[in-house]
Amino acid sequence: MEKTEHRELTYEHTYIPLTTLSSGEGKEIAIDIYGYCIQFVNICIMGNPTSRDKEWCLVDAGMPQSADEIIRVAEERFGAQRKPTAIILTHGHFDHVGAIESLLEYWDVPVYAHELEIPYLTGKSNYPKGDSTVDGGLISELSPLFPNHGIDISNHVHPLPANGIVPGLTGWQWIHTPGHTPGHISLFRAKDRSLIVGDAFVTVKQESLYKVFTQEQEISGPPKYFTTDWQAAGESVRKLRDLHPSLAITGHGKPMVGEELSRELGRLAENFEELAIPKDGRFVH
Q1: What is the Cα–Cα distance from 212 to 40, expressed in whole angstroms?
Q2: Count of domains for the chain
Q3: Contact 154/122 with Cβ under 8 angstroms?
Q4: What is the helix, strand, coil percentage profile of the chain, to 5?
Q5: pLDDT at position 215
Q6: 182 falls within a domain
Q7: Potential cystine with 168: which of 79, 83, 86, 193 (Cβ 3.0-4.6 Å)?
Q8: pLDDT band for position 205 (50/70/90)?
């Protein structure tokens, strides 16, 4: 396993060490952003635990069978019986909604997603099966075995407001970043240019089991085996590049900041076809 890497980020007058997020590990990336890794996917617990009201939101809902772990981490940060004001979903793939049904049984809170993602969250549509024909590695080859069915949380899910406001997250806006899924979104806070990416791009080569295990950092396009619209995916990456983010928290991989983020995201945006799009695959052409 590679050695843990340490870097420094001055963030709203707070000294933040950024390190690799390993499974079962959490990091306070900012006073109101807590990243936590579940197996190979990241969730974000949003809110300032030192505030009087201790209000918070959850962004994405991790892997199946992880509800107890998410609840434990949230309650350690905000106290027992303090449920989130909302759960925000970047998209509905199994590794981002795996625990949501159990979480809703415990918390009973509203869930927000893009209107184009709602059919996959109300039992009306299934995602295409993973594409094993894309290049990349063992995870790509295994992807047809991953769950691709939609879920039904009709009693809780709502479309995000059309004006870009994110319910429960003051100062953040949602941005439609399709390609990986039709209704994929990312979250952006303009005052400090913080970006929660989802899977619009990631900071690990997600198709490779070895690189997922070692968490070797490299900006990559959205996971190839589940991405269905490569033209839209490229446009989404360029849209995020044009925001000039200072911090990016991706659905897979460790956070990236500063000049490295600017340089590598720019490189991906400018060379998306070469760096991100697989040579072959069901959705390439």
Answers
A1: 7
A2: 1
A3: yes
A4: 25, 25, 50
A5: 66
A6: yes
A7: 86
A8: confident
Describe the strand order of the beta sheet including 172-176 as a list of residue ranges: 172-176, 185-189, 194-198, 247-250, 256-257
Contact call for residues 206 and 252 (beta carbons, < 8 A): yes
CA distance 93 to 236: 18
Q: Please provide residue 175's backbone torsions phi and psi, each rounded to the nearest 5 degrees.
A: -130, 125
The distance of Cα 74 from the centroid of its chain, to the nearest Å, equals 17
Q: Is residue 121 part of a domain?
A: yes
Strands (E), 135-219: 157-159, 172-176, 185-189, 194-198
**Alpha carbon distance 9, 15 (integer Å):** 6
CATH number reported for the structural domain that contains residue 235 in this entry: 3.60.15.10
Q: Where are the alpha helices (DSSP H) in 122-225?
A: 138-142, 209-214
Encode pLDDT of 121-136 as tens digits.
999 999 999 999 998 7
Burial level of 105, CB count in 10 A (0-12/13-18/19+)? exposed
The one-character DSSP state at 225 is G
Residue 107 corresponds to which amino acid?
Answer: W
Task: Confirm whether 281 is domain-assigned.
Answer: no
pLDDT bracket for residue 6 (50, 70, 90): very low
Map residue 35 onto helix, strand or coil. strand
